[in-house]
Design a protein that fits this description.
This protein has about 230 residues and is α+β, with helices and mostly antiparallel strands. The chain has 2 domains: about 130 residues, Impact, N-terminal domain (Ribosomal Protein S5, domain 2, 2-Layer Sandwich); about 80 residues, Alpha-Beta Plaits, CATH 3.30.70.240. Helices cover about 30% and strands about 35% of the residues. The chain is built from 5 helices and 10 strands, in the order βββαββαβαβαββαβ. Strands 1, 7, 8, 9 and 10 form a 5-stranded antiparallel β-sheet that branches.
Length: about 230
């Protein structure tokens, strides 16, 4: 069976959709304002930085990091005037190394910007690394996260008279039914399945068994959905 492999991952963790999340720390008189926002692409991530530069126009630094894509292939960071390697990279590592479950590091489609108001006390390179890393980690501790799952939509054509029975039987077997479409010659049941060969193979076998081989599973497109934690 052929799969659409624009990305290999079928599940990852991201920030809940919405205007974003903010958290502030004060470290040795400097204010570190962290803003997290869900970002589907690099343009959205850069737009966040641009907007915060306008909002906090009098701040000295607007450091940023973002991770994009189900397979986290796009990763960028910026020190924005802080000593090289003391802000953007620690922020990026806080995102990339974040455990969303024991042993699982799959956080993606998320941008982090830390706005710093200098408080007059130099933190040194080590202090800056800790401050920027801690700022992002503390925000993630409080931010609403969701699971994002890729589902494979599959169609099953059956006679009109059998549609209701088959749909009920599939539901009772634990399958997610997306919709039923009634056409001139048949009814088409749509299933939403985990986008893995094993899950689709199991569903195909179940459809064949329930219809005595009269109907087959026809894979269609995919769809990403958010699942609250």
């Amino acid at each position: 069976m052929e799969f659409e492999d624009g990305s290999r991952a079928t599940k990852y963790t991201t920030l809940a959709a919405g205007p974003g999340f903010r958290h502030e720390l004060e470290i040795r008189r400097s204010r570190f304002i962290t803003v997290l926002r869900r970002s589907a692409d690099e343009d959205a991530a850069r737009d966040l930085v641009t907007g915060l530069r306008r909002e906090f126009h009098d701040a000295r630094h607007h450091c940023s990091a973002f991770v994009i894509g189900p397979d986290r292939m796009v990763q960028r960071s910026s020190d924005d005037g802080e000593p090289s390697g003391t802000a953007g990279i620690p922020m990026l590592e806080a995102l990339v190394k974040r455990e969303t479950a024991p042993g699982v590091t799959d956080l993606s489609d998320i941008s982090a910007v830390v706005v710093r108001y200098f408080g007059g006390i130099l933190l040194g390179a080590g202090g800056l690394v800790r401050a920027y890393s801690e700022s992002v980690s503390a925000a993630l501790d409080r931010a609403p996260l969701v699971d994002r799952n890729r589902l494979r939509l599959c169609d099953v054509g059956v006679p009109h008279a059998d549609a209701g029975r088959l749909e009920n039987e599939l539901r009772s077997n634990g399958f997610v039914m997306a919709e039923t479409r009634y056409e001139a010659r048949q009814a088409v049941l749509r299933m939403a399945l985990p986008d893995t060969p094993s899950a689709i193979g199991e569903a195909g076998s179940r459809v064949a068994a329930l219809t005595a081989g009269a109907s087959v599973l026809e894979p269609r497109g995919t769809e990403w959905i958010d699942v609250p934690r």
